[in-house]
Amino acid sequence: MTEAGETIRPLVDRLFRRSSGRMVASLVRVFGSEHIELAEDVVQESLLRALRIWPFRGIPAEPEAWLMRVARNRALDLLRRDQAFREREAAIAAARSLGVDDEPGRPPDELTDDQLRLMFTCCHPSLAATARVALTLKTVCGFGLSEIARAFLVAEDAIAQRLVRARRDIRDRGIPLGLGGAEDVAARLPSVLEAVYLLFNEGYAAHEGDALLRRDLIEEALRLGALLLREESTRLPEVHALMALMLFQASRSAARVDPAGEILLLEEQDRRSWDRRMIGRAFHELELAMRGDELTRFHLEAGIASCHALPRTWQDTDWRRVLDYYDLLLEIRPDPVVALNRAVALALAEGLERGLEALDGLAREPILRSYYLLPAARAELLRRAGRFAAAAAAFRQALALRASEPERRLLERRLADCERDR
After folding, report:
1. Can you list the alpha helix ranges (DSSP code H) found in 205-296?
2. CA distances for 23 relative to 12, 118, 297, 318, 390, angstroms
3. Which helix or strand (DSSP H or E) is residue 306 part of?
4. Residue 349: which H helix or E strand, with range?
5. What is the DSSP code string of 20-74?
6. Buried b (16+ CB within 10 A) or exposed e, 50-69
7. How many helices and strands (H and E) does the chain possess?
8. So what's the pLDDT on residue 158?
9. 3-43 per-position pLDDT tens digit
10. How far is the first Cα of the chain from the last one, in angstroms, to the nearest whole number?
């Protein structure tokens, strides 16, 4: 690759993560929700074209505007073959020439941001629950199939099929962009929040690549959360709770890796580098979240995160309180991954053997059989108990499963420690 290409590829990658969702949303607003897949395709084509052209012609003064223009023109070229579109083309051209962002006469409770409107479209209640979130992650957040599959712990083929069905349903049912009144918000908001949550998680612990953190995804999730809080119709307690959770977690980003980029676990982190201003904002959001009548998973996970934000040292963590939060979370969300996290909290609150027993009980869960964190958690508890040979075997089992590169390097270091100490 040329020197120019080495400079441009990272730029295009950043633009894809930062701007593709906004570009797709803008195109869907203009051309209609029946053309979601077309919008995704032409945005992808514009990025590929940038990789081919910019090394020779130079980077445009406004790269995102260049990409948007190329994607829009490509969409127009493809859609002019469609008679139904040709009948609407004059109105679309007029809106483009006026720079219209919002249609006249939009109801006052309608969303005002293109990305939010597309997210709520993808999360229409007529679509299957998992498909709503998967489509949002693909269309609005720019996730690949592998990233979505890892988020749901399912095969990529299954995700691909769900995406095809979801796009077809939006087209065939004529689902419009955006939403209507309060009932629509209540029906779609849980899936929207799940998508933002998974977007943040991918940024906080990336499943692919050589780096643990993807700060662009963290920033995008926080931006979308802020947009939801800006809208009157979605300024709700559960949104404040999710925002609190993300702020608590993001406040520790700088401390999660050492200078070489290797993972630092919570007990190893320098808490002086935590962003105390962000933690203060998180507590404010958590206070606002408590003004509602419903206790959601985001309330409880934010509560858990707050237990880590308060103490000055790892040893001062109130693990009994953390365990209580996990018990409540497991009641409202009986999920094997939640049970796995609870088992670790149980070990730290009531003893390592109690935690190991709980982990052993999860070994039969089908969804966890290929999840590296189950043997990794067991290995870590065995290591803490001084059972180094058994810990080494469990670390090897974890390494045989799929994990990100930073996670694999951590497992390899822990395995080396156990082999040395046994």
Report:
1. 215-230, 237-250, 276-289
2. 14, 11, 31, 45, 51
3. helix 297-309
4. helix 336-350
5. HHHHHHHHHHHH-GGGHHHHHHHHHHHHHHHHHHHHHH---SSHHHHHHHHHHHH
6. beeebbeeebeeebeebbbe
7. 19, 0
8. 92
9. 455 678 888 877 777 788 888 988 988 888 888 889 999 99
10. 47
**Token pair in block for residue 39:** 């919008």
The CA distance from 336 to 409, in Å, is 25
Each residue's pLDDT tens digit, 273-326: 999 999 999 999 999 999 988 899 999 999 999 999 999 999 999 999 999 999
Helix (H) / strand (E) element for 359: namely helix 352-362
* 3-state secondary structure labels for all residues of 70-137: HHHHHHHHHHCCCHHHHHHHHHHHHHHHHCCCCCCCCCCCCCCCHHHHHHHHHCCCCCCHHHHHHHHH
What token pair was written down for 333? 């969300």
**CA 193/CA 8 separation, integer angstroms:** 33
Q: Is the pLDDT of residue 88 over 70?
A: no
Quickly tell me which residue has 């395995």 as its tokens.
415
Lookup: tokens for 10: 């990272």
Place of tokens 């390494």: 399
pLDDT of residue 5: 53
CA distances from 199 to 220, 237, 259, 360, 412 (A): 8, 20, 25, 30, 27
263 DSSP β-pair partners: 257
Yes or no: say if 378 and 359 are a contact pair by the CB < 8 Å rule.
yes
Please give the structure tokens belonging to residue 194: 């799940």
What is residue 175's predicted lDDT score, i.e. its pLDDT?
83
Tokens matching residue 323: 């365990």
Residue with tokens 């995102």: 64
Q: Give the burial class of 18: count Cβ atoms within 10 A of its Cβ; 0-12 exposed, 13-18 middle, 19 or more buried.
A: middle
Residue with tokens 């995704």: 40
Q: How far apart are CA 408 and CA 208, in angstroms?
A: 11
